[in-house]
């Protein structure tokens, strides 16, 4: 992504409804995994480190990030060792180290998504889990994806197939950000009809009460996700487990 986007993300990720709600949903999933005491966790492609504090509540966190600016921002938070790394070919960790790898809205940035999943599987301990989220539905492609240098959006079935082909067993998969799907779909469609492109895509902070309302709607899905699958949404997620052998 552009350096200006990382700076903007760092300023918004604590309180912006989308970041905060996705973090609450991810934490609800991680909590249900019941990781072992002293679990090793990798945030692969941690960006500016918005999820590090949350992940650190469930084990010892390591992180990797390609962008120098984002990596320094993540390091400054003090929750993890953050190393330089690039998926899939420049991963600074040995195989079989982690109980959980979090890959949260990262895979869509990587040219070789299948190779990336195979590498991340090799980093997991036997029985370890990959928690992944990606943007969903190619028809939602918009200026937001272009500004953030996305390579693709995913159908849930295609994501599950890629995880299985990498040697993982998909324990759970669902779309999410379902409640706000009509609103976001309408906004993306309207954006396509307008000339020009916003430099930040969708990354703007709404007024306080709107921000709180959007957070409440989006984050409420944490009470469903992990138990039942939602039929559509702006994003897709999965929990996939490495075999014990």
Task: Please describe what this structure looks like.
This protein has helices spanning 3-12, 17-33, 52-56, 68-76, 113-123, 143-147, 156-165, 181-193, 208-219, and strands spanning 40-44, 60-65, 81-84, 98-104, 124-135, 168-176, 235-242. The protein is of the alpha/beta class and 245 residues long. Helix 5 (113-123) links the parallel strand 4 (98-104) and strand 5. The radius of gyration is 17 Å and the shape is globular. The mean pLDDT is 93.
Keywords, separated by commas or semicolons:
single chain, 245 residues, alpha/beta, seven-stranded mixed sheet
- Mass-distribution shape: globular
Compute the number of helices.
9
**Averaged pLDDT:** 93
Oligomeric state as shown: single chain
Strand residues, percent: 15-25%
Major sheet strand order: 3-2-1-4-5-7-6
- Name the helix and strand elements from N-terminus to C-terminus, one letter apiece: HHEHEHEEHEHHEHHE
Task: Count every beta strand, where a strand is a DSSP E run of 2 or more residues.
Answer: 7
Compact summary:
The protein is α/β, with parallel strands linked by helices and about 240 residues long. It is about 40% helix and about 20% strand.
Topology:
Layout: H1 3-12, H2 17-33, E1 40-44, H3 52-56, E2 60-65, H4 68-76, E3 81-84, E4 98-104, H5 113-123, E5 124-135, H6 143-147, H7 156-165, E6 168-176, H8 181-193, H9 208-219, E7 235-242
Parallel strand pairs: 1-2, 1-4, 2-3, 4-5
Antiparallel strand pairs: 5-7, 6-7
């Amino acid at each position: 992504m552009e350096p200006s986007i990382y700076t903007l993300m760092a300023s918004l990720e604590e309180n912006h409804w989308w970041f905060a709600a996705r973090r609450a949903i991810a934490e609800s999933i991680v909590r249900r995994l019941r990781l072992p005491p002293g679990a090793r966790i990798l945030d692969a492609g941690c960006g500016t480190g918005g999820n590090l504090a949350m992940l650190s509540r469930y084990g010892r966190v390591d992180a990797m990030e390609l962008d120098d600016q984002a990596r320094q921002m993540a390091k400054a938070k003090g929750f993890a060792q953050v190393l330089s790394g690039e998926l899939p070919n420049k991963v600074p960790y040995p195989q079989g180290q982690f109980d959980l790898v979090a890959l949260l809205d990262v895979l869509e940035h990587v040219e070789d998504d299948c190779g990336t999943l195979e590498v991340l599987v090799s980093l997991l301990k036997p029985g370890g889990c990959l928690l992944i989220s990606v943007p969903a539905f190619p028809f939602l492609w918009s200026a937001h994806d272009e500004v953030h240098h996305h390579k693709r959006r995913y159908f849930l079935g295609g994501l599950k197939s890629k995880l299985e082909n990498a040697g993982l067993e998909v324990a759970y998969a669902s779309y999410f950000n379902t409640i706000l799907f009509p609103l976001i779909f309408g906004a993306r469609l309207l954006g396509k009809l307008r000339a020009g492109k916003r430099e930040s895509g969708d990354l703007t902070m709404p007024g306080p009460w709107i921000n709180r309302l959007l957070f409440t709607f989006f984050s409420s899905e944490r009470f469903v996700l992990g138990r039942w699958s939602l039929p559509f949404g702006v994003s897709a997620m999965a929990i996939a487990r490495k075999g014990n052998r």
